[in-house]
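Subject: for your reference before the review

Hello V.,

The reviewers asked for a structural picture of the protein, and I figured it would be easier to keep everything in one thread rather than splitting it across files. Below is the amino acid sequence we used in the manuscript, unchanged from the supplementary table.
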Amino acid sequence: MKEIDYYNLMKGFESEEIEPMVGIFWYLPEEHHLFEVHASSLSQSKMVNGHTTYSKLHKTIWQAKKCRDRAKGKETSVYYQDYTRIPRGRIFYDNGKFIVKVGSWYKQYEEELRELIADAFNLPDDFIFEIGKHWELGHGWDESQLDDFFHEGDLRADDLSIDDRKALIHELISTASKLKIADSELACLLDDKNIKVIKAHSDSMERLWEQVYKEASSYIGLASNCVFSFYYTNGKELRMDDMNSIHEFMTQFPKTCKFKWGFGCVPDSLPFNITLVLSGWK
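And here is what came back from the structure prediction:
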């Protein structure tokens, strides 16, 4: 390669800018490095309520690694520990600034931590550290903070036991007479670790959908699967306006989202009911 060609090649590399990223991490201060770094570029990340961040949860990633090591018989896996006992953080992009949410533990490691994060996520030097109690050592998700979870950080996923999932499958199949989906197929959709179950009941269709939108609004842009059964009591029937409401709700989701839904009649309940399952965060 001629010298001028080499020079032009190197200048080309220098001109390519690596896009800053949002994501999550754990920090091992004794070893002076970040651990389990998971990131996505801004252009590939989702924005909800003005906050852009990585879609996966610390808890979900930790549980998956724990199951993997348990299956492999690794007796001393770090993933057997409580994931909240190891320093961790999450990076947001908000109003033109990168914000790194951490616990108060970060203060004694701030200089090193800033350098490691800037390097791992290609962040500008002016990113901001903010303390959030969700990232304090030993602190998990506080149920009372659900309305503000995007301000506080991780997207919450419902933790369903195997029995809970089986009961949910049974409910969806039995209450939605036109839910054309096999038990095994539904079980597969519900197997995702990130799952949100929403139940709404009302004597008014308008109030019912108000409840649904309030509960589901933060998940609509992220879900890959949507399964729901709409059911009503004896003496009530679906009208064209009701079908329009269902159609309008479905159009709010990404075009790639997979839908399974149906409706049926059940006795002894409020006039209108819905069970909605969202899963498969992107």
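For the response letter, the relevant points are probably these. Residues 3-152 form one domain. The chain has two domains: 3-152, 162-279.

Happy to draft the paragraph if you're swamped.

O.
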